Amino acid sequence: MKMTDAIIKELDMEETKAPLILVIGQTGAGKSHFINKTIGDKVVKESSGLKSCTSKPEMVEVQVDEHQFLMIDMPGFNDTRRDTVRSDATILAEIARMLTLQTQLGVQLRGILYMYDISASRMTGDTLRQLEMIKRICGEHCYSNIMLVMTHWPKSLADQKANGCAVKEKDLRTEFWRDFVRGGSIMKRFDNESISAQAIVRTFAGKQNIVTALQEQLAQGLKLSQTSAGSFIADARRAEEIDPSPKSSQERERLERWRKDEEKLPDDIVRDVRKDIKNADSEARNNKRIPTVALILRWLISVSALAMGVSQVALQVE
C-alpha cells in the first residue's frame, strides 16, 4: 500500500489545517513541560526528575499568535518505568506510526522539536545512536525544520559556568549536532519561561511543510525494516552483538529483546494504519460522533506502535 494514497480522500471527515510538530527526546528532557509553557497552562502531565511520565504519544492543540499547530508529545527515548533503555525498534515504530497517521489523515508535518537536557553530564552511546536514527528518519532535506532545544538551562551566569553549559553548547554545535546545524537546524536555549517556548514554536510559522525520508521510503512500498532507519538499527544491534568485548547477562538480554522488537516491526505499516483509521471512523459514527481528523488522530496516537489494529482500545480512553 502506497503512503501517498491517503485514506482521508475516501472518508467524509472534517479536516484540519493546523500543521503538526513532533516533540521528541530523552526522558527528563522536559518535553511535556515545554508544551505546557507554550500553552501557558499545565495541560500535559509532566515528569518529576528522571521518572518517565509520557508512556504514549499525546496531542495538544497550540496557538502562537495567529498560528495554530498540533504538537505531539512523544514518549521519552529511555523508558524509566521499566528501568531500561527502550529499543531503537520501538522508538522507530512509534515515530513511523505517527508519521503514517499524519499522512493518511491529510495533516501536514511542519517540523520536529528535539529536546536535550543541557545538564546531562555526557552524551551517551544510546543518545548518539538515536541521533543517527533521527537523521535517517528525517533526511538531510528536512534538517532546516528541526529545532534543537537545550532545556534545563540555568538562569544565573554562575550556575551556567558551574555546569559548563557554554562548553557543552559548543560541543553540541561543533561535534554532536554538527551535521544538523550545517543542514540548517537551529539550536535554541529554553529558559523555562512561556515567552521562550512560544518564541521557539513561532519559528515554525515561517517554515514550509516537509515530507521526511522515512515517509518517502514507505511511499515507495518499502517495509519499515527495509528503510534507511530500519536497516540502521538492525546493523547497529548486530555490530554490538559481534563485538568481542565482554558482555554482562543484562547486556545480552537487552540485545535479545531488541532483536525480538525488530522482528515485531510491521511489514505494512500503511495498511495497518489505514485499517485503524477506518475502524475508528466507523466506531465514531456508530456512537453518533462526528469523525473529525483531530478526533481520530487523538484517539489513534495512543495505540502502541507494536500492537497495531486495536483502535477499539483507543476509543475507550477518549
Automatic annotation (TrEMBL):
Residues passing through the membrane, by range: 295-315
Keyword NAD in annotation: no
GO cellular component terms, A-Z: membrane
Keyword Transferase part of the UniProt annotation: no
GO biological process: protein transport
Listed cofactors: Mg(2+)
Annotated keywords: Chloroplast, GTP-binding, Hydrolase, Magnesium, Membrane, Metal-binding, Nucleotide-binding, Plastid, Plastid outer membrane, Protein transport, Transmembrane, Transmembrane helix, Transport
Compartments reported by the entry: Membrane; Plastid, Chloroplast outer membrane
Compositionally biased region (Basic and acidic residues): 249-258
Gene3D superfamilies on file: P-loop containing nucleotide triphosphate hydrolases
Recorded topology in the membrane: Single-pass membrane protein
AIG1-type G domain sequence ranges: 21-154
GO MF entry, a single one: metal ion binding
A UniProt-annotated Pfam family: AIG1
Lineage: Eukaryota, Fungi, Dikarya, Ascomycota, Pezizomycotina
Protein known as: AIG1-type G domain-containing protein
Region (Disordered): 239-258
Record-linked InterPro entries: G_AIG1, GIMA/IAN/Toc, P-loop_NTPase
